[in-house]
Amino acid sequence: MLSSISALSMSRAPQRGFDRGERIGAALLRELTQLLRRAKDPRLGDITLHEVRVSRDLAHAKVYFTCFPADDGAKEQQRLLNGGLSSFLRYELSRTARLRTVPQLQFVHDESVIRGEQLSALIDEVVGQDAEHAEHARIESQINGGDDQHRDEAADASDTDR
Fold first, then answer.
1. Is the predicted pLDDT of residue 137 greater than 60, yes or no?
2. What does the alpha-carbon distance between residue 95 and residue 74 come to, in Å, rounded to a whole number?
3. Cis peptide leading into 103, omega within 30 of 0?
4. Is residue 130 scored above 50 in pLDDT?
């Protein structure tokens, strides 16, 4: 009996493309991006927000960011964002976002862009080495192929002399 009740309640659960936490994360990302654009602090530099992940209880949110060019001063900017600026941004979100409570913000430097660039460079290097090896093998086969041809001609000549 208990299993039929839980199956019934599960079947009535709404089927959506993504859950409430993802929707709130996307909304917070939009709002935070606009707030940072309006900020006049030159220490922020060129910060790009990539994702906001909200905990299940909506009490905490991790905000993933990168700073360009080449993530110079990422640790300094992370310290700045997680300091007093985090409280200010949370206050501003409470005024603009339609949430009962605004989650605590934790800014995390997203290193996936740097790792992606490193992997891309490694792939390019391996492809270049592979092309060099292929060219070397082609030249070597032409040289060896030419030697085989000369050996075959010499063997044919010695066979006709007999």
1. yes
2. 28
3. no
4. yes
For the chain, the straight-line distance linking the first and the last C-alpha, in angstroms and rounded, comes to 99
Q: Cα 110 to chain center, whole Å?
A: 8
List the single range of 54-63, 67-76, 89-98, 111-120 with lowest mean pLDDT: 67-76
Per-residue pLDDT tens over the stretch 19-47: 888 999 999 999 998 888 887 777 776 78
> β-strand 60-68 against 46-54: which pairing, if any?
antiparallel
CB distance 47 to 73 below 8 Å: no
3-state secondary structure (DSSP) of residue 161? helix
The reported pTM is 0.62
Q: Where are the alpha helices (DSSP H) in 39-111?
A: 74-82, 84-96
Q: Any residues with CB less than 8 A from the CB of 159 and at least 6 apart, and which? A: none
DSSP lists the bridge partners of residue 108 as 64
Among 53, 89, 86, 48, residue whose Cα is nearest residue 65: 48
Q: Judge contact between 105 and 59, C-beta under 8 A.
A: no
Which amino acid makes up residue 21? G
Q: Please name the amino acid found at residue 159.
A: D
Task: Write the single-letter amino acid at 106.
Answer: Q
The residue type at 43: R
